[in-house]
Amino acid sequence: MRIGVIGSGALGLYYGALLQRAGQDVHFLLRRDYQAIRRAGLTVTSPHGDFHLERVNGYQDSAQIGPVDLVLVGLKAYANAQLIELTRPLVATGTTLLTLQNGLGNEDLLAAAFGADKVVGGTAFLCCNRGQPGTVHHLDQGAIRIAEFAKGLSAKVEHLAVLFKQAGIPCEACADLTRIRWEKLVWNIPFNGLCALTGLPTGRLLACPETRQLIAEMMREVVAAANRQPLTEPLEGEGFIARLLDLTTGMGDYRPSMMVDRLQGSPLELDAIYGVPLERAAARAMPMPRVAMLHALLAATEPQAL
Amino acid sequence: MRIGVIGSGALGLYYGALLQRAGQDVHFLLRRDYQAIRRAGLTVTSPHGDFHLERVNGYQDSAQIGPVDLVLVGLKAYANAQLIELTRPLVATGTTLLTLQNGLGNEDLLAAAFGADKVVGGTAFLCCNRGQPGTVHHLDQGAIRIAEFAKGLSAKVEHLAVLFKQAGIPCEACADLTRIRWEKLVWNIPFNGLCALTGLPTGRLLACPETRQLIAEMMREVVAAANRQPLTEPLEGEGFIARLLDLTTGMGDYRPSMMVDRLQGSPLELDAIYGVPLERAAARAMPMPRVAMLHALLAATEPQAL
Asked: DSSP of B59-101, one letter per residue?
C-alpha cells in the first residue's frame, strides 16, 4: 500500500518506520529530520528491539509525494492551519485519511476539505520522543484505536487495523470515534497540560499526593463531560481512572508531548486538547472547572500571550 | 512606645521605619539587612516621598532587644517554627503582639504560647519589596486593618490604630479578625499563588482574559468559604471582587510576595495562605476546587517536593 506521512514527528516517524519495515511503500514529508534521513536513513530505538531503515523516501514538499492510498496525519494540531494545503497533493478518489493527531476537531477539518467518507480518526497511546535528527526513541506502549469519522464500524477501518497489526502495531477497529477520542482525552487533558505547566514529568506529579488527587479529579471531569456526548456506550468512571493512573505510574518519569513542546519553546496544542473539548462540554452543560483553569494557565504562559 | 519588629522583611522594615520616623522607639531583629543597616541606616523609597533613617536599632538576637510594649510580627509564615522562640524575649506582662503575617493560623500560634488576650491580628494591603540591603521600596497602597484575636473591638486596638495613623499609616480598628483575614485572602489566594506558579506579575494575569476570569472565579470560591465562617457580617460578593480587580489592575505589573519568594528560591507560605484556609472551608462544607488545584500545583513545584 502506498502511504504518505504528513507530520513526521515522533509519532509519524515511528509508525511510518514500522509500516515500511513491514513492506509498505511509505513516503514521509520531513522538516527537521530531512537532511539526516536523506543522508543516513531512519533509526528507531525501542524496548521491542532497535532497527534501522537505510533507504527512506523523504520529501520537503508534499507535491513530490503525489497521490497515495493512505495518508497518515501526525502533524501537531497547532500547525493545522497548514494541514489541508500539505495534504491535498496526496489525496485522490480512493484515498483514506487517517489522523492520529491529539484532541478534538482534526477530523472535522479534513472532512470539510476532502469529504467525510474519506476520514478516519484514531488515538495512539504511545510514549515516543524524537532524538537526534534521524532517530526516534520508542519508550513504551504504542497501541492504536481507529474509527470512521462519518459512520460506525466499516470494512475500511477493519482492513486498516489488519495493515497496522501486520506491521507489529496493536490496532483495534472501533465503531465510535467520539468515544475513543474522549477516552484518550481522559489521559491527555491532565497529563499533557500539568506536565507542560509545571515542568514536571508524569512520575513526579503522581508521586505528590496533592497532584495525584488533582489528576484523578480532572479525569472525573473529562469522563463526566464525555458521557454527555453522543456515545454508543458511556465511559466507565472510577475503574478506568484507577487503571490509567496505574498504567501511567508504570511509565515512570515520562514527558508528554506538550511538555516537550513547551521545553522546546514550541506552541502548545491548546485548542485541540483544551479549547474544543471545553466548548463541547459546555455545549452539553457539563463545565470542567479544573480543566478550564489548566487551560487558562497554559494560555497565559504561552509566549505570544505576552 | 517601645516596639520590637520580628521578621524584618519588606513589611516589617517599612512599617517599622514609619513608626521610628514618627518618634517611636523601634528595635528591629535583622538577618539579611543587619550589616547594611548597622553601617548606613535604613532607606525607604516611596511615592509619598523617600526618607532615610541614619540611626537604627538593629539586632541579630532578639534577647538583646528585651521586653517591649508592642511586638510587630512580619515574619514569613513558612518560618513560623521559629516564631515563638524569636518572640519570647520581647514579651512581658503588658506586651501586645500584633501579627501582620499573611494567611490564617498565625494568631493561634501566638495565643497558644503567650495568651490569647495579648494577641492582635491585622492585614496589610501593601505593595512593597526589599531592594539592596538597607533599602525598602514602597510601591503602592499600605493601609492596615487590625482586630483583637480573642474578642471584638477594644480600647487596645483603637489605641494601636491611633499609633499607626500618627505615623502616617492608614489604620482601621476592626471588630472581627476572622472577617478581615478572609477578606485579605480574597486577594492573596488568587494573586500570590498564580503569580508564583506562572512567573507572571499581576498585570499580565489580568491582561489575559482566561486568567482574569479564573482570578474572579477563585475570588468567588474564597468569598463563599468566608461566608460559611462565623463572621459578624458576610463579605460582599461581586461588587467587592470587581473593586479588587480594578484596584489590582491599577497596581500594574506587581510581583506579590509569594512570587518574589519563588523567584528567590525561598519556601512559599503555603499552609497559611492555602492549607489552613482550605481546611477551614472544608470543615464548613464549602470546598474551593480551584484553590485546592492551585495549592496542589504550588506544593508539587516546591523544591522539597522532589
From this structure: ESSGGGT---SEEEE---GGGGGGHHHHHGGG--TT-EEEE--
ipTM associated with this complex: 0.88
Provide, as residue numbers in chain B, all residues whose Cβ is less than 8 Å from the Cβ of A210: 292, 295-296, 299-300
Domain B178-305: which topology? N-(1-d-carboxylethyl)-l-norvaline Dehydrogenase; domain 2 (1.10.1040)
Residue of A nearest to B293 (CA): A214
CB contact under 8 A, B296 and A214: yes
B2-175: CATH topology:
Rossmann fold (3.40.50)
What type of residue sits at position B41?
A: G
Q: Does A141 touch chain B (CB under 8 A)?
A: no
User: Which set of grid coordinates corresponds to residue A33?
Assistant: 529530520
- Which of A195, A200, A208 to mutate: most B Cβ within 10 Å? A208
Question: Which residues is A222 bridged to in the sheet?
Answer: none
Biggest alpha carbon–alpha carbon distance for chain B: 54
Burial B86-109 (b: 16+ CB within 10 A, else e): bbebbbeeebbbbbbbbbbbbbeb
Query: What does the pLDDT look like over A29-82, one tens digit per residue?
Result: 999 999 999 999 999 999 999 999 999 999 999 999 999 999 999 999 999 999
The shortest CB-CB distance from B198 to any of A194, A200, A301 is to: A301
Which of A214, A215, A294, A304 would best serve as a mutation to test chain B binding (most B beta carbons within 10 A)?
A: A214
Could you list the active site residues of B?
184
Per-domain residue ranges of chain A: 2-175, 178-305
Q: What's the pLDDT tens digit per position in B42-74?
A: 999 999 999 999 999 999 999 999 999 999 999
